[in-house]
Amino acid sequence: MAVVPYCMNYITKPNKMKKILNISIIAAAITLILSSCGKYEDGPGMSLRSKKGRVAGEWVIEKSYTNGVEDSLNVYQQNCRYVFEKDGSGAFVNDEYTLVIDDVPFVFEADEIQMEWEFDDKKENIRTRLYNETSSTWQDWNEWFTITRLTNKEMWFSYTEVEDGGNVETEIHFKRN
Q1: Is residue 173 within 8 Å of 154, Cβ to Cβ?
Q2: Of the candidates 86, 28, 33, 80, which has an alpha carbon nearest to the alpha carbon of residue 57?
Q3: Rounded to an integer, what distance in angstroms lies between the CA atom of residue 60 and that of residue 177?
Q4: What pLDDT, on a 0 to 100 scale, did the predictor assign at position 67?
Q5: What is the C-alpha separation between 38 and 124, in angstroms, rounded?
Q6: Containing H/E element for 93?
Q7: Radius of gyration from C-alpha coordinates of the chain
Q8: How far apart are CA 139 and CA 128, in angstroms?
Q9: Is the pTM of this model over 0.85?
Q10: Residue 165 has pLDDT above 90, yes or no
């Protein structure tokens, strides 16, 4: 009696080969589709949360970079929070903090300013505007910030400004508070 190697069973049974081939093609297609889902330069590749769902929440500045070099956060940046709601509303919140200049303390009181935010049509950029309580009007929209990373715990923006005839690239990393 001849012994048939195990792998030969697949060759002799065409229905099993077709099933394996079909499963392989489906798996490859799913892998290809999922690997191309990433919208943002630094990720994530895929998320089950909506983009609005990932933006919604309270955020603080974790790091700031100018032309790729990390900046030290000033006391103002260390004490501000951004609150984004799913409906496009929000708030810019400053906690009370003290700034000491030449041994003289200056106390800045806590403040909260109403904010609105929106995505562009492709949800690749975001912008905000603040409410001016003195004039009871909304300020003009800020420039668009390019979203480079948007996860449930991290949100990174970048923008370019022209200063002294050259481009200055700024990237701000927020973390969920």
Answers
A1: yes
A2: 86
A3: 6
A4: 96
A5: 11
A6: strand 89-94
A7: 26
A8: 10
A9: no
A10: no
Contacts 24+ apart (CB under 8 A), 129-137: 130/92
List all residues 6 or more positions away from 114 whose beta carbon is below 8 Å from its beta carbon: 89, 90, 91, 130, 131, 133
CA dist 165 and 161 (Å) reads 10
- What is d(CA 34, CA 162) in angstroms, rounded to the nearest whole number? 37
Read off the pLDDT of residues 70-119 as tens digits, 9 standing for 90 and up: 999 998 899 999 999 999 999 999 999 888 999 999 998 999 999 999 99
Give residue 157's identity as a one-letter amino acid code. Answer: F
pLDDT for 99 equals: 86
Q: Using an 8 Å Cβ cutoff, are 113 and 131 in contact?
A: yes
Local structure of residue 92 (DSSP, 8 states): E
